[in-house]
Inverse folding.
């Protein structure tokens, strides 16, 4: 559990097949992003934290849609430039905003 965020991470989702069935800081990679609904139901997840601040809007929309379908909220981590500038810290999770969902697919 992260005491600063008051959350207990259950697992990660990642589309990279090389990361499947591995662990990151002792937290398992539970499957690809397409498994959001299944993972939420199987593990009793009550919130999704999106740790892809530069992911294309199509990816974010897919994750947010799956969360809405599962009736759970989503938050996202700040962008790296916000953290490096000192304006926010990594612990400043925020709600997913419309501009996140409207990102162009070529964001890097």
């Amino acid at each position: 559990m992260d005491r600063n965020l008051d959350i207990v991470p259950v697992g990660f989702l990642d589309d990279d097949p090389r990361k499947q069935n591995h662990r990151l800081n002792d937290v398992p990679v539970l499957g690809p992003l397409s498994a959001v609904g299944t993972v939420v139901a199987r593990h009793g997840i009550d919130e999704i934290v999106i740790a892809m601040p530069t992911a294309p809007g199509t990816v974010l929309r897919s994750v947010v849609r799956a969360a809405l379908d599962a009736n759970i909220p989503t938050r996202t981590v700040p962008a790296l430039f916000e953290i490096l500038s000192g304006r926010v810290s990594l612990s400043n999770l925020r709600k997913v905003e419309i501009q996140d969902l409207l990102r162009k697919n070529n964001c890097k």
The longest strand covers residues 27-31.
